[in-house]
């Protein structure tokens, strides 16, 4: 007897660490990527779709449908991406072989809604870019908030500084209005924010291990990581890169053991004040083991039990 | 030869931990309290003046002038205090012997301005309540921002949760508009916020040691602490009280050694959004030892080298 694979919808602004996240998913046999939607963030939604298709091509997974999603954010236009972090093309300005596959003729928002209905109670939604598609989907069809199994997102910063402003993490800061909708919808959400993602890094030695593996996906990711490590030298003081999105992927796969991950009230600051883009988690119960907060449905991952980089490296080189 | 004592202006909504702070100052021979101004916070400004005069009476220090300051906050009326924390009278609803002394016939704002001019380059301003008087003073006479030696405040929460909202500490949250003015003025400010003050506590054993000392000020503070420890049981899960204001007093006296206290840009969220009352410190340089931020003039104390409770206990029982 074969156990059913967990169906996953993957939403991404792919993205260098997004590429690592996709590789992690592709290397995980117990999940099945039912569809990938793209969104503007690290690069445009169209570019993210191209990058995703090309990386899937290298992995020999042209069977996975990729849908272009929202180009602009809920309340503001797409800002052109983050070339200083992810390169002008989102993947460190390296050129991947262009895959023959094209995006499907379905909007990412509709893909997510369809998949939620096709897999009632089962679909795991993993979002590693701005939450625009998720917000648009739950606004278009609120029923999906009851249908999906869980939403896992990379985003936020609870008790550590942000990375775009002193308090705002990039995915949330790009579209705070969308993040507010996603955190307010009555589904179960798990957030992997900077509290945990800045504490797990690939070192230069890991990048070299990717190269040395001789594996095609690993090689592509190592090439993307080169400039990314330059950017992160300004953050960490060395060529180490934070493993933001792959951590969320591993969480969506159920592979992480949390040392601290309270379920608490979370709201998003979508004002135009200095706190714009902050995910405000109510962690005031920290001295008493975070007593239950009635109605809270967001699990904020603060700390893992074990190092993540070795798990990630092993999976990427297995492709 | 006698070394000149450091002149201090003490601004307070006295207050239980404020009383500990005042005791700490009174027990420190190398500083001289030139004046005390009161403000609405834990209780009204008038009540805080009464409490201050009565505590000074017990300490035999009726010579220190006490000026009533702002009753209301800059943009909002005083809210009636925090009876659930500090009792209806600000000092845990205990009755102190009423001192004969009355407040001076000078507003706290004018006292602060006068003292700044009388002690150019020397006055240390210690504020442990809402920053209303300080803000009103620097708005009325901007020159004082160049005249005072340093402003030391109890307030804020940088990388830990707030105590009034998930992100806002009480002193800042009571009057965010004032805090914004004080943090924006070009003086040197040191903030002792919840990052450090929640990590230093008096245990029930310390309270009993205050009683056992048989000293009058220690006895009064131990009596005030009784209900305060009840409140904090809901926070810490035991009868331990956070040493907020006395830590700021010790900082103003130059007695603390900081393990981490970066000088960084700090802004205050004075919007009406969910982040209202948050002090937003730019701590993004945390992985690189907090590189200099040009123009930054706020030192945010995050961690001390040594336990504080023994220092505080020793001083209070010495009175």
Automatic annotation (TrEMBL), chains A, B:
**Keyword annotations from UniProtKB, A to Z:** Glycosidase, Hydrolase
Gene Ontology BP annotations: purine nucleoside catabolic process
CDD domains recorded: nuc_hydro_CaPnhB
Enzyme kind, highest EC tier: hydrolase
- Known Gene3D superfamilies for this protein? Ribonucleoside hydrolase-like (3.90.245.10)
Q: A cellular component term (GO) from this record?
A: cytosol
Q: What is this protein called?
A: Ribonucleoside hydrolase
Q: Which organism is it from?
A: Microlunatus phosphovorus (strain ATCC 700054 / DSM 10555 / JCM 9379 / NBRC 101784 / NCIMB 13414 / VKM Ac-1990 / NM-1)
Q: What is the lineage of its organism?
A: Bacteria, Bacillati, Actinomycetota, Actinomycetes, Propionibacteriales
